[in-house]
Design goal:
CATH architecture: Alpha-Beta Complex
Structural class: mainly alpha
Strand order of the largest sheet: 1-4
CATH superfamily: Aminoglycoside phosphotransferase (APH), C-terminal lobe
Largest sheet: 2 strands, antiparallel
Number of strands: 8
Strand content: 5-15%
CATH topology: Aminoglycoside 3'-phosphotransferase, Chain: A, domain 2
Radius of gyration: 19 Å
Number of domains: 1
Helix content: 40-55%
């Protein structure tokens, strides 16, 4: 079992309801969920047990996805290299990140090229690529009475399963403790589902893919409070991550 928000059907019995609000010309499809108790974990907490529990939960979701038969007409977007860092990137171009200059464009560009090459070699086999949450950051978790709940499936789509590992420390990838917390996630994950050596070894690539995607997001969402809070410092902190990744795999 995985604890997720419970949807509430409308008076007509349908889960999805079209709603037109704020003078919009077109209706939007919405779903109402029941209230969930809990609080958001924070980076200042001891997250070891939280991430271990989350690892097991993620593995259950991946096992379900791997065995799931995709219904006819089912569509979700794909979080692949092109959607994240390509010219058709979903959250903006990494080149437009805050505080970019010629030196950083070169460094980040070489990192992007290496990410692309490694992902092409890694492939999209059914044991590695499928429907995943794709945004397991702290803001999308609730802690309640020792249990971890996963919320906000807005970005759920088709991607590499190990990309979920990279989303755990979103916006905090540069902190020294980040790799260790991912190890706790892996420990929990392995209690449910095996992780091949090649999958584990590629997690740093997914971390860099996610980080540069977020550099693009910060640059393209200047109106968001989080983007304003992170500012140019987020790009500054990414420089060291790129350099370390290139030393390791370049």
């Amino acid at each position: 079992m995985v604890a997720t928000p419970v949807p509430i059907a409308g008076r007509d019995g349908e889960w999805v309801q079209p709603v037109r609000a704020g003078g919009a010309s077109e209706a939007r499809n919405v779903v109402l969920f029941a209230w969930e108790d809990g609080h958001q974990p924070t980076v200042g907490m001891d997250l070891r047990q939280c991430f271990k529990s989350l690892g097991a939960i993620t593995a259950k979701m991946h096992a379900h996805s791997a065995a799931w038969q995709r219904p006819q007409g089912f569509e979700r977007f794909t979080w692949d290299f092109e959607a994240a860092l390509g010219e058709s990137s979903r959250w903006g171009r990494w080149r437009d990140g805050l505080g970019m200059n010629a030196t950083r464009l070169d460094l980040f560009g070489r990192t992007v090229d290496l990410i692309r090459d490694r992902l092409e070699g890694y492939g999209r086999g059914p044991d590695r690529f499928g429907l995943a949450h794709c945004d397991l950051r702290l803001a999308n978790l609730l802690l309640h009475e020792g249990a971890v709940k996963v919320i906000d499936f807005d970005d759920c789509g088709f991607s590499w399963y190990m990309y979920d590992a990279a989303t755990l420390m979103s916006f905090y990838e540069h902190l020294p403790g980040a790799p260790g917390l991912i190890e706790h996630w892996l420990e929990g994950y392995r209690t449910v589902r095996a992780v091949a050596k090649a999958e584990e070894e590629e997690i740093p690539t997914f971390v860099m893919l996610r980080r540069l995607l977020l550099v693009a997001w910060v640059g393209s969402h200047a109106e968001a409070d989080l983007a304003r809070c992170l500012g140019v410092a987020f790009t500054d902190q990414t420089v060291g991550l790129c350099s370390a990744y290139l030393r390791r795999f370049g």
